[in-house]
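# step 3/5: fold
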Amino acid sequence: PSRRRHAMVGAMKLNLGCGFDKRDGWLNVDNFPECQPDQRLDIENTPWDLPTDGFRHVLMKHVLEHVGADFKVFAAVMRELYRVTAPGGLVEIHVPHVRHDTYWSDPTHVRAFTPLTFKMMSKAQNRAWMAARANYTMLAMLMDVDFEIAHAVQVYDPHWMAKVERGEMTREALREQADQLWGVVRELQEIGRAHV
């Protein structure tokens, strides 16, 4: 979407899909009245009643996996996320890892994510893939969003972290196991920066 981009001065922080994790100094938004959000909002119902470029930091903690079973709805949600994030603003997304029970145990989870999913939302990455004639879905171009990964963390399952802490395996071995086995990585935390 075409956007009027301005400096982040005065932009707020948005806790989108806050649930019961309400944060001081943030606009806490959810559609679940029992958590008493600052503002009620159905994330899948776009456009959102939130200001364009209004937030320098948007947190979606265990929200995105519940949204957009239909790709058109998911794309609309991502476009709105991009619209409300100030230029250069951070979008922090926490999702369960697709190869962990926490993803598969909840029947309301409709969309899985891997680190590659978030790379697909970068226009620079999409352009590089197009130049290389790579066979990836150009999500950033398709959805007209542009998030560049600034920081990514894999949160390991406590069972596996205990092995590292007891000296039974190294962090290097843990990373290798995470690429091969289910249940090693519990959560992905991706922080992206919104580009103009």
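# step 4/5: annotate
The two ends are 10 Å apart (CA to CA).
# step 5/5: archive (pending)
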